[in-house]
Write a structure and sequence with these properties.
The structure is a single chain. The protein has 12 helices and 12 strands. It is of the alpha/beta class. The chain folds into 2 domains: about 120 residues, Rossmann fold, CATH 3.40.50.720; about 140 residues, 3-Layer(aba) Sandwich (Rossmann fold), CATH 3.40.50. It has a 6-stranded parallel β-sheet, sandwiched between helices. A 6-stranded parallel β-sheet has the order 9-8-7-10-11-12. α6 links the parallel β7 and β8. The longest helix is centred in the middle third of the chain and has 22 residues.
């Protein structure tokens, strides 16, 4: 039997559109610390954390979960912060917590409270849709931030997972050339099948000085200081990875390169579509075996 009640906490407009979608699908929805939004009358704005999650079968956490490791991420900073410790203390056994991904910082307190994790990213449909929305939003930001034409651009894409693959598909018809740095053999084969050139690390010294765009999807510092210094001053870096990101936050100042860190692209560029994707994934919780 499908779960029909949800508490939606914090985050950006994705949370609001998810609430709207689930309401239209027959769920009861209570929101707490979500952005101001013209909800339908049946979406309840709770006055407290305990009121929001009391009796909720599912609790939807924001993406990202937190920006300071202490409080729930809230796009509206005028509201009082909601401490993660208070959230964990308020949980009841059997509740399901849905989040983009479930790391130890979430899983440990959930197990202690006998609650169940539901990582959205393990859904194939969610992962594919989220990657496509990320690629679309990135294209918009690249066009807005760069002074040159994509048709003359030489691009290096770091990583060819879900997001890297979606980005490659969108950019390939537009850019002069796209190279991919990827270590997993099956992903390298997929990139080559899709018409992209794959590189080894030894080829970087020849490739980096020719680049117009460097796009990172890997949450790790792949390029060291020596390699970053090989980039031309006009090369624009777009970092869409999750923390700890692909480059230090002071990349622009240290290397005199245009650097744009863009986490959470679907929430910024396509919140309605992204929220509906989250809602549809949560509807399939019963299929997940919970």
């Amino acid at each position: 039997m499908a779960i029909q009640s949800i508490a939606i906490l914090g985050g950006d407009l994705r949370q609001c559109y998810c609430a709207e979608y689930l309401l239209s699908a027959g769920w009861q929805a209570a929101c707490f610390h979500t952005p101001d939004f013209p909800y339908r009358n049946n979406v309840k704005n709770a006055e407290s954390l305990s009121q929001a999650i009391q009796g909720a079968g599912v609790i939807l956490l924001p993406t990202p979960l937190t920006k300071d490791r202490d409080c729930l991420f809230q796009a509206i900073t005028q509201q009082a912060p909601c401490r993660l410790a208070d959230l964990w203390d308020s949980l009841s056994p059997g509740q399901i917590l849905a989040a983009h991904s479930i790391g130890p910082e979430i899983e440990t307190p959930l197990l202690q409270k006998q609650c169940k994790p539901f990582p959205l990213c393990q859904s194939e449909e969610y992962a594919a849709a989220n990657a496509l929305l990320t690629a679309e939003g990135l294209l918009s930001e690249i066009i807005r931030q760069t002074p040159f034409s994509l048709s003359s651009s030489h691009v290096l894409l770091l990583g060819y997972g879900r997001c890297g693959s979606a980005i490659g598909r969108i950019l390939r018809p537009l850019c002069d050339s796209i190279s991919v740095l990827e270590w997993e053999l099956d992903r390298k084969a997929e990139a080559e099948k899709n018409g992209l050139r794959t590189l080894t690390a030894s080829a970087l010294p020849k490739t980096l000085p020719t680049l117009s765009l460097l796009i990172n999807t890997i949450p790790s510092h792949v390029l060291d200081q020596r390699l970053l210094q090989m980039l031309p001053s006009a090369c624009h870096i777009f970092d869409i990875a999750s923390a700890p990101f692909g480059f230090p936050p002071d990349t622009s100042e240290r290397y005199l390169l245009p650097y744009f860190r863009l986490p959470g692209i679907p929430g910024r560029f396509s919140p309605a579509a992204a929220g509906q994707v989250i809602g549809k994934t949560i509807e399939r919780i019963s299929d997940y075996g919970l």
